[in-house]
Amino acid sequence: MKRYPVICVIDDDESVRSSLANYLRAAGREVRTFESAASFLASPDRGETGCLVTDLHMPGMDGLALQQQLNHIGRAFPVIVITAYPTAAARERSAELGAAAFLEKPVDPDGLLERIDAILSGRETTE
After folding, report:
1. What is the C-alpha to C-alpha distance for residues 107 and 126, in angstroms, rounded to an integer?
2. What is the pLDDT of residues 62-93, one digit of tens each?
3. Which domains does the chain have, with CATH numbers?
4. Are 56 and 82 in contact (CB under 8 A)?
5. What single string gives the DSSP state of each residue in 59-97?
6. What is the pTM of this model?
7. pLDDT in tens, 23-43
């Protein structure tokens, strides 16, 4: 059986977190979920991350601040930002910070999985 990189999902909305995690697990992926950027950053699981899917708007540290922090500590994995409230400024800033993709909620799970696989295989690096 093929071993896939660990996908970490950060979203303060428990229903979004669990639905994405359940879908990705059903597709054979290993998934870790976090309710906040701070919980992800504090987790020992952070070092196993192959791809990160994070919400943009969260209490405390938002997705842009998280990307800045990850860049500061030398992240080595792609980041996909998801949001129900996309703006051109947020999309541009996220891209400047190195996001591999910026997707609008509700996220199509099939499309998300295809995007993750494409990014991890090197077929796609930006949106």
Report:
1. 17
2. 999 999 999 999 988 999 999 999 999 999 99
3. 6-119 (3.40.50.2300)
4. yes
5. SSS-HHHHHHHHHHTT--S-EEEEESS--HHHHHHHHHT
6. 0.94
7. 999 999 999 999 999 999 999
